[in-house]
Design brief:
Helix 4 runs parallel beside helix 6. The strands form 7 sheets. The protein has a 9-stranded mixed beta sheet with strand order 3-20-4-19-18-5-8-10-9, sandwiched between helices. Strands 21-22-23-24-25 form a 5-stranded mixed beta sheet, with helices on both faces. The chain has a 3-stranded parallel beta sheet with strand order 12-11-17. The two termini are 48 Å apart. It is of the alpha/beta class. The radius of gyration is 31 Å and the shape is globular. The chain is 28% helix and 19% strand.
């Protein structure tokens, strides 16, 4: 909406303050900041202390110097992360696939609220998180978290859409809170995500040049600088756009952090080849030259074990074991080679390497040392390029035992993947390719039975990759996708094709991709889980029963006899109970009938729930005899006062250890 200001005309002169600000910002960029003015608004400003120091030849007194990373409203974003919410997750069977048997979840809602709802049930249970959040390019959107609200207002309004139906707003470069809004959006979400990670868990975060520095500082603060694993560089396109304003940019980054560096086992493949490859000592055995056995060369890397003269370990004669299956049998050293030199490790350490078959001797480096050639080990910057072939990315296999064997995909591949699935060009902007997620999923060291979480799910590439990788290697990975039902642009191909929200695109992609993967895999995919339970974040199932005495009316008392909202189903209540009790939302649920009452049995008697009305002693007794760990029912469900009176006695008789709860 255009704002009318006094004296404003189309031919108004330039605002000199803005012009001067731009000049100062160009000369002293480190003095540009964001602050709160006298009206409580966050605006762009010049840090006078920094500016004074820039134009002074001596130290200028100012604020106490300290190492810190802060921004306006940071403390409020911490409060937002910790603030409670009065929400629940409601199941939606009609939009799900294989609801009763799948272990995958697709959750619609504000990801901050969803993370809060999940943090007790999934505390320390997520092995891998991947997110592709808004990059803060000036053209994308950020979640509009209102920090001006009180806690009570937040509880009342949390997750509601504004008057235009928007929950996300565009964050333009002209916004005085440009970095502040983005930081306040991502910070509380990262804090809660950390709680969900297992001790040996890892998080991958896609980001580009706009906020890579701030994102790394955030992660250093949230996860700890010692938990930093890598900053991968992903080649997102094969060539830059001629429309680029300055340098052609063909890369993005993937920040990798672990939950606990002491419990982290590392990543396999190209992401961390230090953990997957073994060192080679290059030498000449006069009796017999041995080289690395054919077929396993990729497991070994050249490593110079020699040190310069005068080093701590020097002038040492080392006996090195030539180890192949022919010379090491049953852990016994069978053949040794004596080399003289200055060694980095002790004899005991080298023998231990050899016995573990983590050492091999080859010829080439030794010859280089004789002719005094210097060898440099280079570090890779860009991840491997997509092959120059014309094969479509989603039809290719990724070798999970050698992550270097194929490319990491590109924006063009991702666009083509969506086109092949939906038959629509440019269905979404900047989706990620399946191969990128396949590589990241396959890089996790250890079990292939874990939960991967993506709480900026978008087009659900992570879900697609999870299903595909399970089909390839027989893994049992499960996914949890979280996505705000953000509206698609009415002019977009997606909207014209009938997809009114991003969630509709994501769910349909999983349906179509899962069906295609299962069809292509044939008999080998009989047990492949291609389904997902759809859950939607909504207000609590319980009524607000707090009224002032003056608000009571005679006909109100009948409505207060039941504290559950009229539009809520027994299955709605079941999932709220599962959240409250910390039961995984992917747990097996069986619906049975006992004495004409519907009963839910979760995970083979771990939880039994009955929310029907007029529940008799017969039903209660039959349930108690099954000895569940938990039993839950509605307070208003008991058929009579007699049933209520005998309730505890029945369980005391048949299942005294059952934890009983009443809604």
């Amino acid at each position: 909406m255009r704002k009318e200001n006094y004296g404003e005309t189309e031919n108004a002169t330039a605002n000199k303050a803005d012009e001067n600000f731009r000049k100062l910002a160009a000369m002293f960029p480190d003095a540009v900041t964001e602050t709160i003015n006298e009206n409580g608004e966050v605006v762009r400003a010049i840090d006078k202390d920094v500016l004074m120091q820039e134009i002074s030849c001596t130290v200028v007194d100012g604020n106490e110097e300290r190492y810190q990373f802060t921004w306006p409203d940071k403390k409020k974003s911490v409060l937002l992360a910790n603030a409670p919410i009065n929400k629940t997750l409601r199941p939606c069977r009609e939009e799900s696939v294989d609801f009763d048997t799948t272990e995958n979840l697709y959750i619609e809602g504000d990801n901050l609220e969803v993370l809060k709802l999940l943090q007790e049930t999934y505390l320390g249970k997520i092995k891998m998180i991947y997110i592709d959040p808004p990059y803060n390019t000036g053209n994308d959107f950020v979640y509009e978290d209102d920090f001006a609200q009180s806690t009570d207002e937040y509880l009342a309004n949390s997750g509601q859409f504004d008057e235009d139906g928007n929950r996300m707003v565009q964050n333009t470069e002209s916004n005085g809170r440009f970095h502040t809004d983005w930081l306040n959006m991502i910070y509380p979400r990262l804090r809660i995500a950390k709680n969900l990670l297992a001790g040996n868990g890892v998080i991958f975060i896609s980001i580009d040049d706009n906020e890579i520095e701030n994102m790394k500082k955030l992660c250093d603060e949230v996860y700890g600088a010692t938990s930093f694993v890598a900053q991968l560089v992903w080649e997102k396109k094969k060539k830059g756009s001629f429309l680029s304003k300055s340098i052609t940019n063909v890369k993005e980054y993937i920040l990798v952090y672990c939950k606990n560096i002491d419990g982290f086992e590392g990543l396999i493949g190209e992401i961390n080849d230090e953990e997957e490859t073994y060192p080679c000592i290059n030498a000449v055995n006069k009796r017999e030259l041995r080289t690395i056995p054919a077929g396993i060369e990729s497991k070994y890397r050249d490593k110079d074990f020699f040190m310069p003269k005068g080093s701590e370990i020097s002038d040492t004669t080392m006996s090195i074991v030539l180890h192949s299956d022919l010379v090491i049998k049953n852990g016994v050293l069978a053949e040794e080679l004596t080399l003289e030199g200055n060694w980095r490790y002790s004899q005991a350490a080298m023998k231990e390497y050899a016995l573990k078959k983590e050492l091999y001797i080859t010829r080439d480096l030794y010859l280089r040392r004789i002719v005094r050639e210097t060898r440099y080990k280079t570090m890779k910057d860009l991840l491997s390029r997509v092959g120059e072939d014309t094969e479509i990315a989603h039809t290719e296999m990724v070798d999970t035992k050698n992550l270097n064997s194929s490319g990491w995909g590109s924006n063009e591949d991702a666009d083509e993947e969506l086109r092949l699935i939906f038959g629509i060009q440019k269905l979404m902007d900047y989706p990620k390719p399946v191969r990128l997620l396949l590589k990241l999923l396959a890089s996790y060291r250890g079990s292939d039975d874990y939960i991967v979480l993506d709480f900026f799910s978008g087009s659900a590439t992570t879900a697609h990759a999870t299903i595909k990788l399970n089909a390839q290697d027989g893994g049992k990975r499960k996914f949890i996708m979280v996505q705000l039902p953000e509206l698609t642009d009415e002019k977009s191909p997606a909207y014209k094709a009938g997809y009114k929200t991003i969630c509709e695109i994501g769910k349909e992609r999983i349906r179509r991709a899962g069906a295609k993967i299962k069809e292509e895999a044939g008999l080998t995919a009989q047990n492949l889980d291609t389904g997902f339970r759809v859950l939607k974040c909504d207000t609590s199932n319980m009524k607000d029963v707090y009224y002032n005495p003056a608000e009571y009316e005679v006909n109100m008392f009948s409505r207060l006899e039941d504290n559950i909202k009229e539009d809520r189903t027994p299955e709605d209540l079941l999932f709220q109970v599962m959240l409250d009790l910390g039961v995984l939302l992917s747990s097996k649920i069986e619906e049975t009938t006992i004495a004409d009452k519907k009963v839910f049995n979760v995970e083979d008697n771990y939880l039994i729930a009955c929310f029907d009305s007029d529940v008799s002693e017969e039903t209660i007794k039959a349930i108690a005899k099954q000895k569940p760990y938990y039993f839950v029912m509605r307070d208003s469900s008991m058929a009579s006062d007699s049933v209520a009176t005998n309730f505890d006695q029945i369980f005391a008789t048949y299942s005294p250890d059952t934890v009983r709860k009443v809604l």
